[in-house]
Specification:
It contains ten helices and five strands. Strand 1 (3-5) and strand 2 (10-11) form a beta hairpin. The chain starts with a strand and ends with a helix. The strands form two sheets. It has a three-stranded mixed sheet with strand order 4-3-5. Strands 1-2 form a two-stranded antiparallel sheet. The chain has helices at residues 26-53, 60-89, 96-129, 134-137, 140-166, 183-187, 195-228, 233-265, 273-298, 300-319; strands at 3-5, 10-11, 13-16, 93-95, 175-176. Helix 1 runs parallel beside helix 9, helix 2 (60-89) packs antiparallel against helix 9 (273-298) and helix 8 runs antiparallel to helix 9 (273-298). It is 75% helix and 4% strand. It is mostly helical. The radius of gyration is 22 Å and the shape is globular.
Length: 320
């Protein structure tokens, strides 16, 4: 073991052990994660490119979707390359400060993803409940400020994680039974009292995820009331149709997130530890992988934009 500072018991590096109990299957487990990562990068970068180049998609809803795609692809890139190095090349070492940096970006970006989903719910609320004022309420400056505020909220609430984790003594070892540097997984390696970390981590989760879920719930309650009051069945179906992809994204994001947060803090001793780690990885991988697919299939304008883009590329090739 290598220690950077013996007096403060700070390790020079951590060892990320991957998925405990499934070490023999690491090579095979890496294949679906690699496949999901490729889909995530291609899908989200494709969405960002499409939204930036297609005039019909220059609307608040799609700006928020582009922000979600950017957050997702950055989140994947923060964790998956190192994860694949662990699985395929047995490169398990990660510098102590690099581990803290990864932990900061993972939690900041997951908080950002939650915040963007909340903004998208508010966007749907305004679009359905105040359609005539939609373009005047959600102007480009408002969208920019909302995105910046969501990012700063995550940074300010997650930054204490790094200081709380760095202050802990690591006299028991530097082996982390995980594929990436998660806040509580790193804190539990410490031989000190990490109760403050657990309490603050839960508080941050409530301030970010709890607040966002509350806003999403209120938004969809108001949307449901507005849609039910519509006299036309076609109008009701169209209104619900604009929300289905967003509801799918919410389910994909929050279900594994809530499982990971609460089992880390309140036990879950009956659940094998490798299941915890697999769910934690799916929590980071599923939304970035599935969101572009869900929005591509469910959103008519995006489907039309993809077809138009391919036809334009085909025309260019024919002209050449």
């Amino acid at each position: 073991m290598c220690w950077g500072n013996s007096s403060s018991l700070t390790p020079g590096f951590f060892i990320l052990n991957g998925i405990p109990g499934l070490e023999a299957a690491h090579t095979w487990i890496a294949l679906p994660f690699c496949f999901m990562y490729i889909i995530s990068v291609l899908g989200n970068c494709g969405l960002i490119y499409l939204i930036s180049h297609e005039e019909a998609l220059h609307r608040p809803m799609y700006y928020f979707l582009a922000l979600l795609s950017f957050t997702d692809v950055t989140l994947c890139t923060t964790t998956v390359p190192k994860m694949l190095c662990i699985f395929w090349f047995n490169l398990k070492e990660i510098d102590f400060n690099a581990c803290l940096a990864q932990m900061f970006f993972v939690h900041t970006l997951t908080g950002m993803e939650s915040g963007v989903l909340m903004l998208m719910a508010l966007d749907r609320y305004i679009a359905i409940c105040y359609p005539l004022r939609y373009s005047t309420i959600l102007t480009n400056p408002v969208i920019t400020r909302a995105g910046l505020a969501t990012f700063l909220r995550g940074v300010l609430l997650i930054l204490p994680f790094t200081f709380l984790t760095k202050r802990l003594p690591y006299c028991q070892g530097n082996f982390i039974p995980h594929t990436y540097c998660d806040h509580m997984s790193v804190a539990k390696v410490s031989c000190g009292n990490f109760k403050v970390n657990a309490i603050y981590g839960l508080l941050a989760a409530l301030l970010i995820g709890g607040f966002d879920m509350f806003c999403i719930s209120v938004s969809y309650t108001m949307i449901l009331r507005a849609v039910v009051s519509l006299s036309s069945a076609d109008a009701r179906q169209k209104a619900f149709g604009t929300c289905t992809s967003h509801i799918c994204a919410i389910v994909i994001t929050y279900v594994p997130a809530l499982f990971t947060i609460f089992t880390h803090r309140f036990g879950g001793q009956n659940i094998p530890y490798h299941v915890h780690i697999l769910i934690a990885n799916l929590y980071l991988m599923l939304p970035p992988t599935l969101n572009p697919i869900v929005y591509g299939v469910k959103t008519k304008r995006i489907r039309e934009g993809v077809i138009k883009l391919f036809l334009k590329e085909k025309d260019v090739l024919v002209m050449k």
